[in-house]
Amino acid sequence: MEETSREAVATAVQRVAGMLQRSDQLDKVEQYRRREARKKASVEARLKAAIQSQLDGVRTGLTQLHSALLDVKDIQGSLADVSKDWRQSINTIENLKDVKDAVVQHSQLASAVENLKNIFSVPQIVSGTTLLIEQAELLQAHRKLMELECSRDDLMYEQYRMDSKNTSDMNLISIYFEDVQELSDELAKQLWMVLQRAIVTVRRDPTMLVSVVRIIEREEKIDRRMVDRKKQTGFIPPGRPKRWKDKMFEVLECTVGTRIEGTQSVTREADKMWLVRLLEITRKYVLDDLIIVKNLMVQCFPHEEMMGHSELYSECDINQLEPLLPQDVVDELLSKYVQTFTSNITGWLRKALETDKKDWQKETEPEADQDGYYQTTLPAIVFQMFEQNLQVAAQIDGDFKEQVLKLCLKQMNTFLIRYREEAMTYKEEHLRDRQLPLCYVQYMIAIINNCQTFKESINSLKRKYSQSSEPTDSDAAIERTLNEVAKEGCQFLLDEVFLDLEHHLNELLTRKWVTGSHAVDTICVTVEDYFNDFNKIKKPFNQEMTSEALRRVVVEYIKAVMQKRITFKNADERREGAERMIKEADQFKFLFRKLAAGEDTDRLCGAIAAIAEVFKLTDPTLLFLEVTTLVSKYPDIREEHIQALLAVRGDASREMRQMIIGTLSENKVSYSGLTQPIFKDITVPTITMTTMTTMTSMATAKLLK
C-alpha cells in the first residue's frame, strides 16, 4: 500500500508540474483543482459501483448455490420414495394376472361389438359394392370391400386367439363372408380390364387409371401388414397375400405382347413384303405407345419400375465406343458456338432493353406479380434466353455448361451497366418535363423491383447449372451494379417527392411558420400519398427507402433551423415555437411508424424535439446543461450547429456562447459511428463579406430614411 501511495503521489506531482509550466497558468489553478476534483469523484463513483456490482454478484451466486443444494436434497428424497414404491409394486404386478385375462376378454368383446353393425349388414354392403363396381366407382367399391374384409379378419383373428384349433367356428365365419371373396375377385377383374386398355384409358380418362394404381397400392400395404402379423401371431386371413402388384405387371406385359402380335395383318403367302409391313407397323405402334407412356402414363404410376427392366439396357458399353468426331473438330465447333452465342446474346439483350424502354413511356401502369409488386417483362425475357442456351450446353458437356454460364454472367454484367445508364437517362428526361412520362413513378418502381428479380434468377441459374459453389469473377460486379441501380432508383423517387415538398420545406422556421402554417401537415400528406405507390417496391428496397425518406425529412427540418431563418424575439415566442416543433416531430414519428420506417424512427424524430428543448428553456443559466444533453444524444453535432441554435434562440449573450462552445470543446464527445449521423451533412451558412456590406448598406439607408 505504501509503495502504491508513493507512486500515486509521484504521478500527481508530475501532472501538477505539467499543468503549471507557465506563469499564466497560475490563474487557472482553481479551475484545474475543480476539474481534478470532478475526475476524482467520478473515478471513486465508478469504483464504488464496480465493487457493489461484484458484491451483488457474489451474493446472488451464494443464494443460488443454497437453493440448488435444497433442490438436490429434495430430489434425493423423491428418488428414495420412488425406489420404495417400485419394490412394493413388484408383488402387486404378479397379482394382476386375472385383470390381464379380463382385459383380453374385454378386447375380444369390444371387437365383436365394433363389428356387429358390419356383420348384420354384410349382404346389404355386398350388394351395394357390386353396384359400385358395375358403375365403375372403383375407389368407393374398394373402400367398402376393405371394411368387409376388416370385419371378417378381426373376427377370425379373435377366434384364432381364443382357440386356434377350433376349425368349425372358423369355417362358420368363412361361409358367412364367402361373398366377400367373390366381391374381391370381381373387383380384380375390373382392374385387369382397365390395365389391359391402359393406352386408351390414359388418354380418355386418366383418373380411372390412377384409381386402379391407388387400389393396388392399398392392397400391397395390407399384404405387407398381414405378412408381418403372421410372423408375430401365426395368423393370416384367407386370400392373403393377394399380390395384385405382381398381377398388374403380368397383365401389362401380356397386353404389350398381344398388341405387337395383333399388328400382323397378312401372311407370307398373301404378301411377299409382309415382314417389312409388319416391322413398319410395329415400329409405328411401339413409338406411339412409348410417347404415350412417357408423356401421360408416367404421371399415373408413382414408381415407374418398367423403365428399369434389364431388357431395355443397351446391348453394348457406350463408354468403350470411339467418339464420333475428333476432339480438335469438337473444340473448333464449340469455339464457333461460343463466338456465335456471344454475338447473338449481345444483340438479344440490346433488343430486350430497347423494348423495355418503350414500355417505360406508356400511359398505363406496369404489370404486377402475384404479390402486387410492379414489374416489367425484361427479367423473364433475359433469363429465358440464358435458360435455353444453357439447356443446349448441358447436353454437350458439363465443363462446357460451366463455360456458357460464366459467359452469360459476364454478358449480364455488361447489360446491367447499360441498364443503369438508361435508368439515369429516364430520370433526367423526366426532370425536363415532370408531367411526362405519365407513369414515371410506377415504372421506376418496376426498375427497382427488376433488380431483385435479376438477383433471384441469377441464383436460380447457378443452382441449376453450376456444380461449383465458388463465386465467379462476375458475381461481385453484378451484385454491386444491381444494388446501385436499385439504390439510385429509390433516390430518384425520393427526389421526386422532395421536389414536391420544396416549397413547404422552405416555409419551416420562418415568420409565416411562427404565425401559423400548415407546411408540416402538407408534407405528411404528400409523403403518405407517394408511399401508397412505394408499397409496390419489393423488400429490402422498400424498407431502406422508407428509412431514407424519414432521414431526409428530419435533415431538411434541421437544415431549416440551422439556416437561421428567424430569431425568436422573446420567451413566449421561443416557447410557442418549441411546442410547435415538438408537435411536428410527433407528426413525423406517427407517420413513419405507420410506414414502418424501422427502429431508428424515435432517435431521428427525437433530434427535432431535443433542439426544441434548447429553445424552450426559460432559464438561460441552465442553457449549458440543455446543450450538453443535446450533444450527448447526437455526438456528430458541431460547434457551428450550436452557434446557429443559440443565434435562433436570440437571448444568449456573447460570453455565454463562448463559455458553452469552449467547455464543449474541452469535453468533446467522440462519435462512435454506431448510429447513422444526422448533423454530419448539415452545413451552416456563413455570412460573407459581400453579404455583410449589403446588410450594412441596407441598415444605413434605413436609418437615414
Short key terms for the protein model shown above:
extended; 705 residues; mainly alpha; single chain; transport
Summarize the structure in words.
Component of the exocyst complex involved in the docking of exocytic vesicles with fusion sites on the plasma membrane. It is found in: Cell projection, Growth cone; Cytoplasm, Perinuclear region; Golgi apparatus; Midbody. It comes from Cyclopterus lumpus (Lumpsucker). Residues 688-705 have low confidence and may be disordered. The protein has helices at residues 2-19, 29-94, 97-120, 122-134, 138-162, 167-176, 178-196, 198-204, 206-233, 244-261, 274-300, 327-360, 378-396, 398-432, 440-465, 475-505, 511-515, 519-534, 541-562, 571-594, 601-616, 623-633, 639-649, 654-666, 689-704. 76% of the residues lie in helices and 0% in strands. The protein is mainly alpha-helical and 705 residues long. It is extended and about 130 Å long. Helix 12 (327-360) runs parallel beside helix 14.
Estimate the global geometry from the Cα principal axes.
extended
Number of helices: 25
Q: Whole-Å distance between the termini?
A: 80 Å
What is the arithmetic mean of pLDDT?
83
Estimated helix fraction: over 70%
GO biological process, one term: exocytosis
Subcellular location: Cell projection, Growth cone; Cytoplasm, Perinuclear region; Golgi apparatus; Midbody
Main location: other
Family: Belongs to the SEC6 family.
